[in-house]
Design brief:
Oligomer: single chain
Distance between the termini: 37 Å
Number of helices: 9
Shape: elongated
Number of domains: 2
Number of strands: 0
Structural class: mainly alpha
Strand content: under 5%
Largest sheet: none
Radius of gyration: 19 Å
Order of helices and strands: HHHHHHHHH
Helix content: 55-70%
Length: about 190
Amino acid sequence: MTPKTGIRTGGRSARVQSAVHDAANALLQSEGRAALTVPMIAARAGVTPSTIYRRWGDLAALLSDVAAARLSPENEAPDTGNFRDDLLTWAELFVEEMGSEPGLALVRDVVCGGHTVEGMAPCMVFTAGQITRMVEHAAARGEPTPSVEYIVDRVAAPVVYRLLMGAYTDVDVAYARRLATACLADWRPGA
């Protein structure tokens, strides 16, 4: 279940969302994911459990929404002066962020909660946004680049898949660089 759409974003609704998100984040830090309950979060946020159930439906949807809000990238897309270095730098940062325990927990909460933003998982929205900015920087410099979708398919998707499946141990900076290098080597203008 996803959060209801059409909820007003200002006033009491915004205060409730902020209080619940803050409470969930604090409890995730102090108690851990396995110990969380809706009543525990509600008590910390100063709302009733029914407020949370009405707005989010269940704990998984709430944690998905909290994770989506936290997945917003902290750093802007790299702009080193050439697209190859931008992509290599971004791939390294991406695998480090997604491969960290907090990053992986957030991605799992988004996937398990089914949270979407206009049909896309929030991590995809933010990932595609960073790649889009790198492609735009390169276009402004006159550099040809693969499409955002091409880069997502060849760099971001394999990283996330391997992390979520948990069966691979080679998801590191070297793996990210291999993916980014192969993405550029295999790409042909017009592809």
